[in-house]
Amino acid sequence: MKSTHLSLIAGAAVLAAVTGFATVTAPGAPAEPAAKPAALLPVERAGLVCPAPSSSDLAETRYTAFTPAGEGGEAKGAAELKPALPIVDDEDESDPKKAKKAEEAAEKARKKAEKPVLAVQEPGKPAVAEADGSDAPALVGLATGALAPGWTAQQTTEVTAGGSRGLLGVTCTAPDTSFWFPGASTAKSRQDYIHLTNPDDTGAVADIELYGPKGALASDVGDGITVPARSSVAVLLSTLTSEAVDDLTAHVTTRSGRIGAVVMSADESAGSDWITASADPSGTLVMPGIPADATSVHLVAFAPGEDDADVKVQLMGKNATFSPAGNATLHIKSSMTASVDLKDLTRGEPGSLRLTPVRKDRATPIVAALRVARGKGDQQEIAYIPATGPVGARASVPDNRAKGSTLSLTAPGATAKVKVTASAGSDGGEPTVETYTVKAGTTLAVTPKAPEGLKGSYALTVETTSGGPVHASRSLALTSDGVQMFTVQTLPDDGGMVEVPSARQDLSVLDD
Question: pTM value?
């Protein structure tokens, strides 16, 4: 009997070590004590996908990947981004010669896709790769072990002429099953492509729904879009409907599988940039980091549920929070996209926009984003700022240069303190650390202190150390032919830590 008890207990203890859920008790033993709080542990796997950077032959793209230094999972690990597989055209498969040629090309692409474009070698130091022209592929990747917690990647593309002119920056996306894109368009002056990238070894099927100011747009071709395994598909939104709409909301969902999704938006007169997904629908939203010299701020919002939403529109400026004259509130009808032109809202000071319910007892969930312009006429350039979650414990953004980076921090609730670390440079340089206090209801815009002896580019890591939640974004600016090109990336919590339930063991049955 004694040996039987021991073997049963030993087996259950092993299960507890593997799963973290097992409980060992003897038959008829007293009631188990309350479960211990879940432990916060580093993630050991993280996936990312990056869209194809540009269709322009003039495009110059820099990929940057980074894992912040800190407590990791396993002692070892890997973090690699590899090319996505091209879509194979099988229309001519009936022709043996063409079929053979296509298969040879596909095999060559598969072998190429096994070679990493860039790989992080150690926490705390960015990895950088470059690609030119329109052939730069979409990327899919996985980080494991000590390189997984907080792993992030960005691609930054400079296009100096043509319809895609601009500085286009996008943080590579964690795969998911639902994405909201307020601020997209099917207007004749716009070319908006939604990029769907599948990181997995099986195909995914996605649906795209479009909602304008009058509700859902008619579409017969937005359903059942197949995204093959480890491949990327770009869909021009204006081909999904006959309706030309200036401001709409695109909703991407998957029927099977998971994908990463972002929108490439090009305006024939104002440049181009990526639109990343808004934070999940919520009654209160924050869009951080409107530049001080913004010449136009355009808000687009959508209420996906069955209820209308009435929200307060507030700018958290350098010293205080206030509502813009004439636009203190916004009414958003259910399943309809609402928009408002806030013009030069910031008036020479940095700011962040906050949307809150007019009535606290009617906090209708919404999604939202800002379209921000700098400059005027043919010197104009645009960027998008989606609603984003708080920094939380930690968030990072790579690809910062010696000049051109601005970090925006806003505290919508209580005053907060944050620690900002500039990592070692990709080619050399020592990390630097600074601490900032962000007063309640204000936005603090700072020029980060670059690493000592910087060579190459570096990453910024923001950590909340005390006080209320902080929302953040990074603006990167480059000047080309007199145009102040810029792009804005938000910094939500990196999800590098996960709650793991504590295992419980009751070994009271071990008696003589």
Answer: 0.88
